[in-house]
Specification:
This protein is of the alpha+beta class and 306 residues long. The protein is 29% helix and 12% strand. The strands form 2 sheets. The chain has a 5-stranded antiparallel β-sheet, with no helix packed on it. A two-stranded antiparallel sheet has the order 1-2. The radius of gyration is 21 Å and the shape is globular.
């Protein structure tokens, strides 16, 4: 499901994160999901998952009819292709992998909905018409949710939480504290709007500064090192290996390198939307924007226009 308009990705990510923050409320069936692709209940539950995440105008449109991203339903797409694409995402596009957000059964439910007849009436095609009345309704962007407030103090604790290997300060610094691998987030050039900051945390894109592009070194031994170059000379390269966090600074002799690639994407982990709750993400943004944001950071300020 490639997405065409990258400028709308913030809205997509925010809707996805809201959905994830309320938990998964669909029951397991205990049977082979692929065998239930024509089951009306299975399709309805897939429609309910699709609507607030994929079915927005930013993405594939209401009912998968097309929006900022291509139309999906009624195209004869194969089940295996859909399952793989939803699970793994599409490289170098904002279409992120959903396998860490949904169970395999939930992905099959999405597949079932996409493959269903677009002309059929599906009661769960919108979030306010759930197929299972007993299941809790995921919140939308109503007043209660929009008023969710970020706490800078809690955000600072998350940023500098050294008990977590992938904490922000392992790579980033803020006002002189933290790592030097990635940009100093207290500098004016890095002070994005709250909306952009939120999106860059949960779906990092291309780095603004070419110095922070991901470099992949393939050694003659077959080993691959992926990370950020700190410095190099005629004989060696010193690179922060971000294959696992915390990153390790390694010195590689150039004669050991058989291939070098530069990828225009960040080395930042792409699973913070599942590691942190929606409230924790707002706390992080509130902390990062404390110096420049006069108004409190709320979910409403992120969802609304900049």
């Amino acid at each position: 499901m490639p997405i065409a308009r990258t400028k709308h990705r913030a809205g997509v990510v925010i809707l996805l994160t809201v959905l994830m923050s309320v938990g998964r409320d669909l029951a397991q069936t205990g049977s082979d999901p692929a065998s239930k692709l024509k089951d009306p209940q299975f399709i309805s539950e897939g429609a309910r998952l699709f609507a607030p995440t994929c079915g927005t105008g930013y993405c594939h449109g209401a009912g998968g009819s097309g929006g900022g991203a291509p139309k999906l339903r009624g195209r004869g797409l194969e089940a295996g292709f859909l399952f793989k694409t939803i699970s793994n995402g599409v490289t170098r596009t904002p279409m992120m992998p959903f396998k860490s957000q949904y169970t395999e059964e939930q992905i099959w439910k999405l597949v079932a909905f996409i493959m269903s007849d677009p002309a059929a009436s599906i009661s769960a095609a919108t979030p306010d018409q759930p197929s299972n009345p007993a299941a809790p309704e995921p919140p939308t962007t109503g007043a209660a949710v929009s008023a969710l407030l970020g706490d800078p103090k809690s955000g600072r604790a998350i940023f500098f939480d050294t008990t977590v290997a992938s904490n922000c300060s392992a790579c980033h610094s803020f006002n002189g504290e933290g790592g030097s691998i990635a940009p100093d987030l207290s500098k004016p050039a890095e002070l994005k709007s709250p909306r952009d900051m939120f999106a860059s945390i949960v779906m990092p894109g291309s780095p603004r500064d070419s110095r922070y592009r991901t470099v992949v070194l393939t050694l003659r031994s077959g080993e691959k090192i992926s990370g950020i170059v700190k410095e190099e000379d005629a004989e060696s390269i010193r690179v922060y290996d971000t294959t696992e966090l915390p990153a390790v600074l390694r010195t590689v002799q150039k004669q050991e390198v058989s291939k070098r690639e530069t990828i225009d994407e960040s080395s930042m982990p792409r699973d913070y939307s599942s590691r942190y709750t929606l409230k924790q993400l707002l706390d992080l943004v509130a902390f990062l924007k404390l110096q420049s944001q006069k108004e409190p950071v709320t979910l409403g300020s992120i969802i609304g226009k900049q």
